[in-house]
Specification:
The chain is α+β, with helices and mostly antiparallel strands. The chain has a domain of 147 residues: Beta-Lactamase. It is 50% helix and 15% strand. It has four helices and four strands; from the N terminus they run αβααβββα. A four-stranded antiparallel β-sheet has the order 1-4-3-2. A hairpin with an 8-residue loop joins β3 and β4. α1 packs antiparallel against α4. The relative contact order is 0.18.
Length: 221
């Protein structure tokens, strides 16, 4: 008659500890992926919301300047068309005539010149009261023109007389800037640090569980 071989109790406990560790590490990996995706989504939403808010503020300022000048564009010409090296803004009237200054040379201006139809469509939509949408342009690098390979984000907002939403639409405000992080993603270093922190914390927990289990096993519990 064959005798059943019963695995040693120590072997069963070791397998149990390893299974706990596998489950823990799997959960930690899943958590790190979920957190990375959540951070990326939140960052993209926050960046776009801030961008739209900047355009709305610019459009309101243009409307106020227009009204203060006796419904003329005189003061609007003084609006900063180039807040920084990665941003360009402009104001046009209802006939798409430029009413603000633009920088003499900029790789962003070169990209705008290559996408006039898309930009005009955005401006016309804003003049019709359908602004606030976000568009993207992809700029290809050109050594001769000094343009880098970067993506751009742009939007248009209606300019109301005296900056009041109920006022007559007198033009459109256009804002375009380089996307600091491709497709609204947070810096790679930030996501990397968050993921590493989660993995280190999870690894520490798994190690504590393993050590505690080994101590119990050695004690013969």
């Amino acid at each position: 008659m064959k005798r059943r071989v019963v695995p040693p109790l120590r072997s069963l406990r070791t397998k149990l500890v390893l299974s706990y560790l596998a489950v823990t590490l799997g959960a930690i990996l899943t958590l790190s992926i979920a957190v990375a995706l959540a951070v990326q989504y939140y960052f993209a939403y926050q960046q776009q919301d801030e961008f739209l808010s900047q355009a709305q503020t610019g459009a309101q300022q243009a409307g106020l300047e227009y009204h203060a000048a006796g419904e003329k564009w005189d003061y609007v010409h003084q609006l900063g068309a180039w807040p920084d090296s990665e941003t360009v803004q402009m104001v046009v009237d209802n006939n798409l005539n430029l009413e603000s200054h633009l920088p003499n040379h900029s790789w962003i201006i070169d990209t705008m010149d290559d996408n006039v139809s898309a930009i005009n469509h955005c401006l016309q939509q804003a003049i019709q009261g359908h602004g606030g949408t976000i568009g993207h342009l992809q700029n290809s690098s050109d050594a001769q023109r000094g343009t880098p390979d970067q993506s751009l984000i742009y939007t248009c907002e209606a300019v109301h007389d005296n900056g009041q939403p109920g006022g007559a639409i007198i033009g459109a405000f256009f804002l375009i800037k380089s996307e600091q992080y491709t497709k609204g993603s947070p810096p790679y270093g930030f996501l990397f640090n968050v993921t590493v922190a989660i993995l280190i914390a999870g690894g520490a927990i798994a190690l504590v569980v393993a050590l505690f289990s080994c101590r119990r096993e050695d004690a013969g519990w």
